[in-house]
Amino acid sequence: MEYLTVALAKGRLAKDTIKRLRAAGMGSAVNINSRKLVFRDEKDGIEYLLVKPVDVVTYIEKGVADIGVVGKDIILEQNIDVYELLDLQLGICAFAVAGFPGTDLYGPEKVLKIATKFPNITKKYFAGKREIETIYLNGSVELAPLMSMSDCIVDLVETGNTLEENGLVILEKMFDIQAKIIGNRASYCFCYDKIQKFIKAIESEVNNDATDYSWE
Length: 216
What we know:
Radius of gyration: 19 Å
Order of helices and strands: EHEEHEHEEEHEHEHEEHH
Distance between the termini: 39 Å
Structural class: alpha/beta
Strand order of the largest sheet: 2-3-1-4-11-5
Oligomer: single chain
CATH architecture of the largest domain: 3-Layer(aba) Sandwich
Largest sheet: 6 strands, mixed
Number of strands: 11
Strand content: 25-35%
CATH superfamily of the largest domain: Periplasmic binding protein-like II
Number of domains: 2
Helix content: 25-40%
């Protein structure tokens, strides 16, 4: 059997995605509590891969997976050549510039130092607005302004609780993001019918969503 291969991002997004899949009548073969990384659904002819979120787009671009689920943040940061097929209304949050209250983002006196996990997105956003220096951090970016390593940060903000607990505020909202289904360009041509069947099933569930996506 020739399977449609679907890459799923591990973590909370995988849990929410599996809820969507099961509501659409798919994904019963996937056990996110298992250490397995490959799950085959013989009935629907779908092979699911569980991979790190940052690797989903690579599996898609290289054609190892036909389609996948990943946050728009990763698509933008890696800037790779894939089709964006469907918004999932999952993982909804916003990119924002954050720092101490009163921080002047556009003052002319110095280069603005920004700590972030997303240097490419940050550079593109500030291009033509002002001169910046990005400081790449893989986690806990809120610590950088606290230790005077940066003037501010660029990060994903969902509730804003972490900012508040560290005395930081949103200085400028950049744009909203959410999880998307993306596809390999060649696969979209050669596996079009299978991909469309999958997309339509998920799209129908998204449009009639009454699922509780809280995982507290």
